[in-house]
Amino acid sequence: MPVLDDALDSVEAFVTWVKLRHPGEIEFHQAVRSVVGNVIDIARDVPEFRKTAVLQRLAEPDRSIRFRVTWVDDEGEIHINRGYRVQHSNALGPYKGGLRFDPTVNPSILNFLSFEQVFKNSLTGLNLGGGKGGADFTTKGRSDNEVMRFCYAFMTELHRHIGPRTDVPAGDIGVGSREIGYLWGQYKRLENQFSGAITGKAVGAGGSELREEATGYGAVYFLGEMLADAGDELDGKRVTVSGAGNVAIHAAEKAAELGAIVVTLSNRKGCLIKEDGFSVQDVRAVEGAYTRCHDLGEAGEPVGARFVEGGKPWTVACDIAIPSATQNEIDIEDARALVDNGCKIVVEGANMPVTHDAAELLWESGVTIAPGKAANAGGVAVSGFEMLQNQSGDIWTAEHADDALRKIMKGIFQRSKAEGDSGGRIDLCRGADRAGFRRVARATAWMGAM
Ligand code: 2IT
Fold first, then answer.
1. Catalytic annotation, pick one of 132, 188, 237, 373
2. Across-strand partners of 278?
């Protein structure tokens, strides 16, 4: 058999094969290892999947674009950054996924994110392919005008690679409503078309109700499905949330609204703790103050929260943890702390927030993990709703979008559970990978070996 088929011999063989073409891309290897571990038998046993090397093809992006972004700061200094767009698979629809502006952005991070996005988008049941992009740029410490100039320069190159039926970016870390506004404005100026080639647009300017809230709310709706399935409920549960960005804030807000005692938020500098729980109003007050002062400790003072410099949420006692900051934020030590402090469920608001070893320890300790590609898919699902509205001209109400989001999250939970059997216990990570892979694999195989 050809070398390509040998990759299906074992997970190790597959990862070795990926490493040959992507040396040093450790986050990408990590994501591949995790998904391949859950689906390699399907890729091997379904004849048309094996014959058309579906899994091998899905482990290599369709296309990677890398470009220079030149911009001028407020002092007249020239800066050069690197912009990227990884178009991973459009078997199910236009490439779809966020843009991340962060100094950590590199090919490994984007390949892992675009790879994950393919299975996540497949799992939603919507017609969305997978992609991801961004730049090694941070808006932190930059003026509005600098951010605007950067976004314009970034889109001046990116616009030729995207389009409403080609590739539809959105936000991610470092790219919120302000950045989407500048990016979309420049796209529209260059194309002279109101086509909706980017989602996360402002409500009233082509955006969808609930897109901003969708990732965090969706994660809590997914958690609600898990608890209901176990005959339990969220009311009264102690919840730790990490992060203080879009996902964290809206997860905390929805959890508090549904009666959970949300005890933490965090950022790269430390952890904000409120033992008796942040109310919905507290979360909104912290968000507002944090946006103004960029200091989480200061933002938490008015609501009576204390800031632990250098602290992480994982040492705080909880029933449920919702890591919503970034990849690999829970390592094996953190996983041990979670188990010791009574945590029973980890809901991944972020993409791949749990390291491989930490995930193993959590599983062995009886903790259930809701994987990011299932639990945080509400964001991209409402992006899908935004695309539908842009195409049809309809404008959905917030109630309609919320209703549709709940249905999507329920469907994702059911599909993940249905394929999640692992020796008599439900492994949602396995189920999400298998259900997500099966749908995109069918479409990919159906079109032949292209
Ligand atoms: O990780 C993600 O799913 C996102 N950053 C959102 C992608 C989208 O297109 O809304």
1. 132
2. 262
Tell me if 361 sits within 8 A of 314, measured CB to CB.
Answer: no
Cβ neighbours of 177 (radius 10 Å): 15
**Closest CA to ligand 1's atom 10:** 380
Give domain status of residue 395, yes or no.
Answer: no
pLDDT, residue 1, reads 45
CB 139 within 8 A of CB 174: yes
Q: Specify the pairing of strand 167-171 against strand 95-101.
A: parallel
What confidence tens digit (pLDDT) does each residue in 74-98 have? 999 999 999 999 999 999 999 999 9
Start-to-end CA span in the chain (Å): 19
Q: What proportions of the chain, in percent to the nearest 5, are helix, strand and coil?
A: 50, 20, 30
**274 noted as active-site residue:** no
- 342 and 274 belong to one structural domain: yes
DSSP letter (8 states) at residue 201 = P
Residue 415 lies in a domain: no
Structural domain contains residue 34: yes
Judgement on whether residues 36 and 157 belong to the same structural domain of the protein: no
User: Of 58, 73, 96, which marks where a domain is finished?
Assistant: 58
Which element (helix H / strand E) includes 200?
Answer: none
For residue 314, tell me if it sits in a domain.
yes
State the closest ligand 1 atom to the C-alpha of 377, by its place in the atom list counted from 1: 3
Amino acid at 184: W
Domain boundary among 322, 338, 366: 366
- Does residue 97 have its Cβ closer than 6 Å to ligand 1? yes
Single pTM value for the model: 0.98
Return the pLDDT at 450.
84
C-beta 175 within 6 A of ligand 1: no
Q: Tell me, what's the pLDDT at 362?
A: 98
109 close to ligand 1 (CB < 6 Angstrom): no
pLDDT score of 2 = 54
Residues of the chain with pLDDT under 70: 1-2
At position 170, the amino acid (one-letter code) is A
Number of folded domains that form the chain? 3
What is the Å distance from ligand 1's center to 12 Cα?
A: 29
Structural domain of residue 170, as residue ranges? 63-191
The per-residue pLDDT for range 145-164, each reduced to its tens digit, is 999 999 999 999 999 999 99
Residues 341 and 301 in one domain: yes
CB neighbours of residue 421 within 10 Å: 13
Q: Residue for token digits 């790269």?
A: 268
Residues in a beta bridge with 131: 87
